[in-house]
Request: fold
Amino acid sequence: MKRYKIFTKLFLSYTTVVLVALMALSSIFYVLISDVLLQRTLDQLSSVNFLKKQLVENYFLWSGQNLKELQLENKFLRIHDELLQTPADNVQRMHDLTEIDSIRRLYDFESLYMFDARNRQLYSTDDSLFSNDILKHVNIEVQDNLNSIQLLDVSNLSSNKFTWVYYYVPILRKGERVGMVLVQENMEKIQKILLESTGMGSTGESYLVAEDYKMRTSSRFYPDSVPVSITANTEAVRNAFKESAGDGILDDYRGVRVLSVYRRIEHTDLKWVIISEIDWNEAMEPIIELRIYLIGVTLFVILLTGAITYYLSNAIARPILRLKEIIVSLSKGMIPEERPFSTSTEEIDKMTQAIYQLTEGLSRTTDFANEIGSGKFNTQFVTLSEKDELGLALIHMRDELKTFNERELKLARERAAALLEGQENERRRIIKELHDGVGQLLTAIRIRVDALENENELKDEIKARINETIDEVKRISYNVMPQAIVDYGLEAALKGLCDNVKKYAQFSIDFRYVQEHEHKLNFEISIAVFRIAQEGLNNIVKHSGATHVNLHLLDHQDEIYLILEDNGNGFDEKKIQFGFGLRNIRERAKLLNGTAEIQSTPGEGTVVEVHIPIT
Amino acid sequence: MEKIRLVLADDHPMIRAGFKSLLDKNERFEIVGEAENGRELIEVADRVRPDIILTDINMPVLNGLAAVELLSEKHPEIRFIMLTMHEEREYIVNALKVGARGYLLKNIERPELEKAIITVYEGGKYFSPIVTTVLAESVSKPEPEDLDVTPREKEVLELVAKGNSTKQIADLLGISIRTVESHRINMLKKMKVSNSAELIRKAIELKILS
Reply:
């Protein structure tokens, strides 16, 4: 199965759904509207068709009835008789003829022709001779029903291809036919009825077609063609003859697609159909406009949907992609620095939170591991959950390491303390040797020399040398282990130290020992502080070139605070590694859980600060 | 002339022998007893009742100062001279406290030794020149008190008086421990006192603190 990107999936599915919905709606809408429109147009056509059919029928009916009345009044018989009996130039005859013209005008007939029983033309309103062909045709048509008024369509015989419709009116005397009148109907009126195209737009028309599929009224589209010259052998015509009435979307006589309504003309002897049609294109014009409009709307909506979907898909896909990036980097063991971001989607928001918790937890765990790694065993760590195996393992490791480290530290301290203690003991032994041995011997020798009887310069010189030697031994033994620290404690020892240093140093010492709290320091602390001061002063003597030194001690209840500052050359802490002396100071302080800070700036001297807790 | 009766106390026989030979040269001096520690010195003194006891400070069993303290109560008529290698102030001051009338360093020359014994015997006191210097330094004329306490020092003082630790004061004032302590020491110097308790008392006395 092909895998798509979330974005593509979302985008495609959204767009497809919207597209399908829109198309379906549009189609349904379109079909419904076009159905309605079609139906309405057909209804309209139908009513027009029906109305015109009625008018046409009524017209023929009315003409027929008028003629019937005239027949019943024996009008034609009288005129017929008179025409036969009176000579041509008779005034009465003229009067009768005038009457027949009047009838034509009154009833608006095209023309009237009167014949005798032997078909001889007696009179015509237009003074023309009636066509023999037509006369023959009429006689054939009427022979079955000689005594009734009949309507005859003889257009196929017309010389000018106009529609010719005649009423056959028999002249009867006591039920016997003595002649006939042929009345040509005025088709202009029918034509008018049918050409009346109000409400039919620019392509709507109604027309009459006879059984020979020739039109009987003129075409709106071929105003110059005479009706009968136009053949309309169309589906509408055929259907009309077949089933009397109906409608449909068909091709008309022009071959143009039309909405068509058709009916047979009834109540006359004419076998005509009346057809009302309107071009499909015109009838459907609103629908086509609607279609264009719908397509426009659809395109617009598609574009809009596309844009919105693009935005939405992006909005959904982007945080997922970012989360993916985070997870990928997590899987590579990197902890992303990304802060949590919020999205408008709740699930993704929750996922983001969860992943953030994961990264944060990992980050915390990593930090914790780093802290352990760098030896900070007092770092606290809250596990990510009760079952945080990594966290618990790390905590276990930390505890193990801490215990191990503490044991190591304790051992190291004990070893160092033991070493120092041994050193101090050794020193005590040495100064005892020095004092009790060398010192006393020298003193004894000096006294002996002093006691020698003979006084001379040599004796004085020897005494002086011995005194110097004694002083040197005293200085050495003081440095190795001052007796004063044993007898009088730290302050006395430091005071002695300062006095000793002052003897051969180039600087003054401001020594202060502030006893803030009355207590006796144990020997371990005293000797450590003494050694620190001793180392510090040694350094100053050796390297500083100072002119003044402050040695201040504050003997607080809980700690000894020593500050040793000089105004000497100082050194660059970055460049010069602490010398042996300064390192010793630190080691000493550390062994008693204290701290020693050494700060120096070239040209501004050095400051040694020491805190030693009193336990 | 009556002889001056002396007892020598030193844990080193050689030293005792040395001084003995030195003192024997003067006919005014008679060594009537020797001791090699404090305990023995008390026994000898009880027994021989010397005029003057010359004693070392550092001795086993009982040191010279302790022995002198005991003996000066018991035998007020005996005079004591310390004969030692220590020239630290503490030893000197303590020797004077327990009743020593002389304090000599062991590198003393014979004439001076004789002069010291005679001076003490005649009711005076005698100290080696170096001892005098040390003593003089410790009781040198006090400089006048400087009561010009700076506002910052006063701030520190007030916080000290309220019982704050150095660390708390440093945190409160946003300065280093070293600065706090140097203010404290400066004030101790100015007011001529040796610790904070005395400093506060004095500051209240001087109405620097209320």
Remarks:
- The mean pLDDT of chain B is 86.
- The longest helix of chain B spans residues 177-191.
